[in-house]
Write a structure and sequence with these properties.
Number of strands: 0
Largest sheet: none
Distance between the termini: 72 Å
Shape: extended
Radius of gyration: 19 Å
Helix content: 40-55%
Length: 96
Amino acid sequence: MANLTIQRVQTGVRMEKRILKVLKAFAELKDMTLGDLLEGIVLHAFDGTAPFSETSLRSIREFKKIYSLDLDSSASHQLKEAKSAPPKAAPPRGRK
């Protein structure tokens, strides 16, 4: 692994709102970008290893409480997106 030069691409991934809030908070705590955090998590997963220490897991549990994230791995592949409400029409402008 002498050459670790990579090419990054922009992506438009959609994610459950509270999960994203916890990830962003944890990335901020570790002074890293969200992209760097996600890359690390995925690389650990690809190796079959845990990405977080016990200390990190404690921080994540606290962020989950703060952001009311009650999901765990048992919810994986079962999440269904709520239908979005149609945008509200602007109230008609009255004449003066």
